[in-house]
Amino acid sequence: MRKSGPTERSPKTTRKGKNVKLIIATIKPFKLEEVREALTSVGVRGMMVTEIKGFGSQSGHTEIYRGAEYAVNFVPKVKLEIVVPDSMVDQVVSTIASTAKTDKIGDGKVFVLDVESALRVRTGETNDDAL
């Protein structure tokens, strides 16, 4: 007897145009152009960039402005969002890591997530064909 509803696929099952990853990276703002150039040279064709503020190990610092000391709890960062085929993930992550690295606290983080689907609005192309 068959069960109705969605069927589960084996993790090793691949379909053309299906396996796409989202890479989210936070980096120091002054490294943005260098990282963009490096990613372009390895074949990344697009990315989304957002100016953000956050804290981690750095946890902010104090500054003096007009004689008064105040706490800066959030540090400026840049968030990159890049969608790539599975085959490019390792190369993109290592490019970001090596290019954004300054060997100082606050160099950033890189996260890799599965993308359920992608659609190019203009053409209707889906998944890695939409990239």
Outline the structure in words.
With 131 residues, the protein is an alpha+beta fold. The protein has helices spanning 32-41, 89-100; strands at 20-27, 48-54, 61-65, 68-72, 75-85, 108-114. The strands form two sheets. A four-stranded antiparallel sheet has the order 2-5-1-6, with helices on one face. A two-stranded antiparallel ribbon has the order 3-4. Helix 1 (32-41) packs antiparallel against helix 2 (89-100). The model is unreliable at 7-14 (pLDDT under 50).
Any idea what the shape is? elongated
Helix content: 10-25%
- Number of E-state strands: 6
Number of helices: 2
Strand content: 25-35%
Order of helices and strands: EHEEEEHE
What is the CA-based Rg, rounded?
19 Å
The biggest sheet amounts to: 4 strands, antiparallel
Compute the separation of the termini in Å.
40 Å
Spans of at least 5 consecutive residues with low confidence = 7-14
The secondary-structure class comes to: alpha+beta
- Strand adjacency order, main sheet: 2-5-1-6
Quick summary of this structure?
The chain is an alpha+beta fold and 131 residues long.
How do the helices and strands line up, and which of them pair or pack?
Layout: E1 20-27, H1 32-41, E2 48-54, E3 61-65, E4 68-72, E5 75-85, H2 89-100, E6 108-114
Antiparallel strand pairs: 1-5, 1-6, 2-5, 3-4
Helix pairs in contact: 1-2
